Amino acid sequence: MNERAPEDAEWLESDELGGFASGTVGGIRTRRYHALLLAPRHPPADRVALVNGVESWIEIGLDRVPLSTHRYAPDVIYPRGIDGLVDFARDPWPQWTFCVASGVYIVHEIVVDRSDGTVLLTWRMTGDACATTLSVRPLLSGRSFHALTKENPAFDFTAQIVDGNATWRPYAGLPGVAALTNGHYTQEPTWYRNFLYREEAERGLECIEDLAAPGTFRFSLDKTDAVLVLRAADNAGGNAVAIAAQIRAREARRRKALAPLDRAAEAYIIRRGTGHSIIAGYPWFTDWGRDTFIAMRGLVLGRRCFDIAASILETWAGTVSQGMVPNRFPDNGETPEFNSVDASLWFVVVVYEYLTMARPPPEFRERLLGAATAILESYAAGTRFGIRMDVDGLLACGVPGSQLTWMDAKVGNRVITPRIGKPVEVQALWINALRCAGPHFFKTADRACAAFEKRYWNERAMCLYDVVDVDHVAGRLDASVRPNQILAVGGLPFPIVSGSIAAAVVKTVERELLTPMGLRSLAPNDPAYRPRYEGGIAERDAAYHQGTVWPWLIGPFVDAWLIVNGDDRARRAEARHRFLAPLLDHLRVAGLGHVCEIADGDPPHAPRGCPFQAWSLGELLRALARTASPDVPTPQP
User: Fold this and answer.
1) What is the pTM of this model?
2) What is the pLDDT of residues 376-403, one digit of tens each?
3) Where are the alpha helices (DSSP H) in 395-475?
């Protein structure tokens, strides 16, 4: 097996609706989110796991050879299809090759139709041909993708059979599961009990699940390739082989036209209503405002996908309330949450960058500028959560019990990093947003910038204070060495500090916070530093921004480093080699082809959190473009 794709590395196949399929190279489901058919009831929200996996095996003569691999409680791996796994490839879609007998191989593929979420599973025999029967038993749950299921009498095993295809509807109120096939289906209802999900166990969460197997599909692989098409639908009409050919051809054309990093970028772009948005991360996030605007700079604008950019901005512009865009859309379709001070400012910055790069119709340009103006005027006058412009022109924000910045972890009622007052990156964003919105706001920007230069320099630590006027107490300072200050130097259209101060900031951040995976969220010599993101939910949330590494910060850091060290070809090559090459290597070991959400603060900086994170990939793409020379192509994984 490819040494660059370890058995616990994860693959992802997503669609435009918010649904996805995912799993591990070795085939063992390690998360409750690993599934073959996981679909949104109200796209892109309210996602449900319908088909979690399959039990599959080959019969050759008297031998029964497993292809699937599962982990059961307390820690038993059975069957062991992984023992016959000889190769895995992720391009153009996930593909496993098993040796099932001397000279006999089975190739298994999974393809998700990006347009509608249809999942195609195929098996074919290669090498020496012989009489071979494949059996495939789908394992169903029918639950929220955040939940787990247990054996229960309410599950309906009944299959509706039409033209050899099967449809199940396990529970009323949930989508049906349509399985189109060229095999033969036999009803064999049973429960598989006590699957163990290791990643959930390590997070201190419920980790044991039962899955229902309504029946078995059987195929003669020596006569034809096996095809199983899965859909969230109430009927299984259509010819499986014809549909499979269409999906393969359509997805092959789409993927061939894209470089690997472009394909990864598209995985996060989803439809919301009549427009578009960006999923913050797989497998558990929805679309978050802050993440959307940071991520789309690399995922969308950097790839010059201006129609998609316009659709995303129009979608979010329509959500502005009291000068704020939502922090996130809950997955179950509840009222959007507005507890973010910086998401709206990122929106204004991205509007500026979009209008600078694209040439939209005048009326659309005015709508976006109108939304940006409404945000800044509301912030200046005062809006939710104590957000207001102070007399010095800086932006104050925060009330007890709420977490408004991107460092937003909370354990029970305790906010881990409250940062009430005037956080440093919020000022960088505020001043940038004022300059981005046009001449009407320039005087306010100048006043805020002058106050920033006087108040944020920490000469003792040779960096910037993280928060001034802490808890809205004039003159109270937070001297924690955090990465937020880097946005005052780079990563935004208008640097806030320059010269020797900017150089000192970059030097301190590089010395204290830089790792091969990105920037630490707190310097290691701080008493509050947490070296590992481990333990239960409370322990992990307490470490989330207290030393944990965030790959997305590599984008602002690289920009700032080039600003203070020189932006010629040699420096760009040095930055790419020193700061980006490790993240390119990372594309092969965790979420394959993607960048994880976070990593441990201490070496070896193990990847943690979501294995597929939009702003992590987006900022890597933006940094790659930033360091590119005309004669140096962007490397691909």
Assistant:
1) 0.95
2) 999 999 999 999 999 999 999 999 999 9
3) 424-436, 442-455
